[in-house]
Structures are given as C-alpha cells and as structure tokens.
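> run fold Putative ABC transport system substrate-binding protein
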Amino acid sequence: MKIMDFCKVLILLSVFWVSAGFAQPSKVLIVNSDNAVFRYETIASEFKKVLQQNAYQWTEFNLNSHADAEAELKQLIQQENPVLIYCIGTKAYSLARNVASNKKLLFSAAINWRRLDIGEGTYGVANELSSAQEISLLRYFFPTIKTIGLLYNDKFSREYVETIKKDASALGINIINQPINDAQEIGDALNELLPKIDMFWIISDPVVLSSKASVQQIFQAAQQRKKPVYAYSDVFIEQGAVLAISADLATIGRQSASLALMVDKDKVPEGTVQNPAGSTVTLNKCALDALRLNFNQDALDSVNKIVECNK
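> ok
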C-alpha cells in the first residue's frame, strides 16, 4: 500500500509540475547555412542568448558540416520535433522548407527574402532595412543628390523597386530603374544608365549580384564614370561604395529570437516578416575624397564606422 501511495504522490506531483509551468521547455532547431561565416555566427550567437534567457532549449544543425544535409536534417527534425525551425541564410531556409514544410519556419539573413518560397507558418526578419529608412539616410548624407539609378530583375525585385520609387519621390529624389533579364546585360544597362544619374544604388537583387564578376563590373563602370555607389551592405565598402547602411547583425539575432518566442505562443500573424530594428552606417571617406563628393558633415554623428585610405 505504501508503494501504491508513493506512486500516486509522484503522479500528482507530475501533474502539478506541468500545470505550474514546469513542463519540458520548448525546443528550437537552428539551421545555419554556414557557421564559419562571421555574419551568420554572430546572428546565431545573439539568438541563442535570448533563448537561454527565456529557458528555451535548442539544437544546432550547420549545413557545412554534413555531407548529406537533406537526409540528416530530416532525420534530426523527426527525432527532436522542434516547435520552430530557425533558418540563418537562404540555403538553410530553402532546405528546411523542402524537408519540413509542416513546421513553423523563421528565417533571417536571407538576401532578398521576397524571392523565397514563402508558405503558411513562415516568419522572418528581413536582411535589408526598409527603403524609406535608407532613402531618408541617403538624403541626410547627400542632400544635393537628385537622381539615383539601380539595376534589377523584374521577377525578383519589381515590388521592392516600386516601393523604393514611391518612398524616394516623397523626398524629392528621382529613381531611374533599369531592368535586366540576366547578368550578361549588366554592361549595356550601365552604359545607358550611368550618364543619367548622380548615384548608383546596389540593391539585393540575385540576378544583378549573381557573381563576383558582376559586382566588379558595376564598380569598374561607376568608377570610370566617376559615379558614387551606395550599397545595402558594408561588404561592398571594400569594392568602393561610398556609403553602406546595413542591418545590425547582433540586433537581427535578438530580434529573430523575440519573434520566435511570439511565434511559439501564437502571438503574431502567419507570414509576418519584420524589418530590421537596428542599423550600422559605414562611410567610405577614401572613396568620397577620390570622387570629391560633398556630404553633410553633420551626418557624421550617425556613422558607426569611417573607412580611411590605406597609407
């Protein structure tokens, strides 16, 4: 009888623990496109900090560490049964979408997320700031700029470009957009576009940025025409961009984690994709001086990093 009574007590305690919030903590699966990439690992690190603070468990799966990533990821999902899969980078999201379309998916660090196969139960934090934010900062730094040009592919970036044009028009800036079908058209498109503009804007279009050669072609043409280049990421500063306004990596990680918590508790509508909450501004003083381009000196207070010429 004593043993039976003891078992009853254990059962009652188990029920109490569950009802009082002592159930097994929720588990998140983090799928990283490549944890050797600094930006991906920075985002993952901040994401995990927030999970830990909220008593969530997680399992990590790095695509670069698995020969048969698709099969191994599918098996891991079956074993772990996570409440949500957090995908860092486009490769991670595409794979998770293929093997676990019935799971809640959250992505970040995906270039031009609008081109992704977004289904029900998908959420995300965009890789780029809103065009309104970028144009406002551009106007602040370069108040004399009147016309900005960009290349894009209609299939992937039409809606984004239309938003850019609308936001720019509100601030008195004219956007000349030149569509291309493939990277082979970049040279001719630049020859037609560059003489008409004051500045070239690199957007995260997968056709325009299909290769390193395409990027080099853009910067070489801009330098020959003495046209400044603005970019959505500081990775283009080394190429010669005069200004880059990019999403802050650590903030993306924390923001993604906060969104994950809300998704787990069904507190956010399906299909929600948030704009990044923080930004990093990098100014290429060396490129500015070479072009003799005037900018608003008061805007220096908004700069996180200034790149000088190597001596």
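The chain has two domains: 2-127+250-274, 131-247+279-307.
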